[in-house]
Amino acid sequence: MYPLVKQILCIPRTLTFYSSLIEYCLSLKKSVNYTKIVHGQLIKVGFNSHTFFGNRCLELYTRSGSVDDILKAFDDIKIKNTISWNVCLKGLLNCGRGDMGQVLFQKMPERDVVSWNSMISWYASCERSDCVWERFREMLYVGVKPSGYTYSIVVSLVFDDVLLGKELHGQMIRSGLIRSNVVLGNSLIHMYGKVGLIGYAVGVFMSMEYLDLISWNSLIIGFCKAGFGELGLDQVSSMRYFGYLPDEFTCSAVITCCTNLKNLEKGKQVFAFCIKVGFLCNSIISSAIIDLFSKCNRLEHSIQLFKELGRLDSAVCNAMISSYMSHDIGESAIQLLILMLRKDIRPTEFTLSSILASICGMQVVVQGTQIHSLVVKTGFDIDCIVCSSLIQMYATLGLIDYAIRIFASMTSPDLISWNTMIMGLTLNGKLLNAVDTFKELHRKGPLPDQISLTGVLRSCSYGGFVDEGIVIFSKMEEYYGVRPCYEHYACLVELLCQGGRLYEAMEITEMLPYEPSSTIWESLLQACTFHGDVRLAAKVAVRLMELEPQLSLPYVVMGRVYEMRGQWEDAVRVKKAMNRKVVKNVVGCSWIEIKNHVYSFTGEQLQQHTGRDIYSILRLMTWEKGETLVEVNPADIDAIAHNKYV
């Protein structure tokens, strides 16, 4: 027995004594041994079945005890009141037995606001927002008045439903909780900033009787998320004027504002302030500053800060990996991942998805499969973000069957996963599969968005599924609630061109609500040339010349049109105009991976520094085959090897 408790038990035992003893044990917050000692004393004197003492003992077990202890103490109480049920419910939920908690909740003879709050809070902690809203609506239906704690939970789960957020705000005003409750006011400011209604956030801020630092931070973050970074920076000065000292969250929000605005000078000022007050040891602050330097094209500063931090954690490493990625330095990002693993720093889903994106750009299959193995080992193969990155990687590398296998293994793919799969199938020529995947998304997935419709329209265009593509386009606003944007019209024009319906494509192009780009006119011109419509081709070529005077295609087409008509003088004039202008030529590019290094070859240039060795090997290979290789000037080889040719 613990010495202090042993001394206390020598005191004459009265009701006040046992009440004080329980209060003392509750204040200790230590192991279950204290609770069992007190419980044993209550059993000896028969107070364990008393409602008040039974509830207090039950509360002890909810802080340090097992499910069996909680249920035993609960069963000992002869006359259970609402507090007994609530404490037992809280204990079961705290022990992770949500299934038993739900059963107990259904059996409760009377549920007050504490009972409902316990269930709503548990559902929110488990990220089951649908159950939170179901319980909240049921709570209102049975006539239980929500408390400020209830509203703070449900408001935090409003992400994009503006009407729902306003409705909750109205309920709080009617209940009279909003004016004096700082927590609710801060929750509303954060919610309105999150959905982009910054005017409402300012209105709530101005109407609050009491403000704290969280209120100012929420307002600054709201301005930043809504795209009003300058106003967010102005609030810092107002906050300092009213005597509030910025904390780590303030500095993080201000650095994010500077990053979005690409305002390096003010970012450096915040950086200096963080060094002065010692905030740089916070990984959130340091990672935000690394991101700031990277977004402002100061990657060398990001690298220098990363090296000088003297410590590594997942947040800082993720920021540095993202910086390498944004500057197309994929190999450095992979090397940093290897360093993280050597330092026993567990990669997050952001780390792995970023690395997989870098592999897509580098076109390295072996390293991609190695990262896939790491994903499986770390247990992130069930994460939707990582799986979407895996699907994109394999689709980009041309291994579409692996992408299909990963998508099929996902239990509940999100919309990003569906979109990635549709785009991957389209780019790899699995056009019927892409259309079928879109139909499957329509049947059992979330509602398609702009990216989903762009992917399926492209697959219809590439595959020549004209009628099906037109039907999907016509249903965009009615069935899916998506207004066609420029990409959708471009896909529709290309679809009609594929089907030979040139005049319909031309009519849609001229009636577009957007200014047609050269890509649409180029697709239309190529279709006119393919189908032999000389008259329409000449009209489109003239429009394309006006829009892109340095593009070679319209000049070539017009030259052929004039030659077919026998207008030789016009043909010569067009060719001279093409030679006189700086014509843009598209240079092809290929990649090849050799021993984990990627070499890039273009039509005009060999982009690496071993040109002489490669030509020597080519001579040896052709000599073995008995063929003759055209001699190359050594000076030309040196120029190629050192990238001197443009």
From TrEMBL:
GO function term, MF aspect, one: RNA binding
Alphabetical list of Pfam families matching this protein: E_motif (PF20431), PPR (PF01535), PPR_2 (PF13041)
Keywords from the named record: Repeat
InterPro entries listed in its UniProt record: E_motif, PPR_At4g14850-like_plant, PPR_rpt, TPR-like_helical_dom_sf
GO biological process: RNA modification
UniProt keyword Repeat, yes or no: yes
PPR repeat ranges per the UniProt record: 112-146, 212-246, 313-347, 414-448
Cited PANTHER family: PENTACOTRIPEPTIDE-REPEAT REGION OF PRORP DOMAIN-CONTAINING PROTEIN, PENTATRICOPEPTIDE REPEAT-CONTAINING PROTEIN
Protein name per UniProt: Pentatricopeptide repeat-containing protein At1g43980, mitochondrial
Species name: Spinacia oleracea
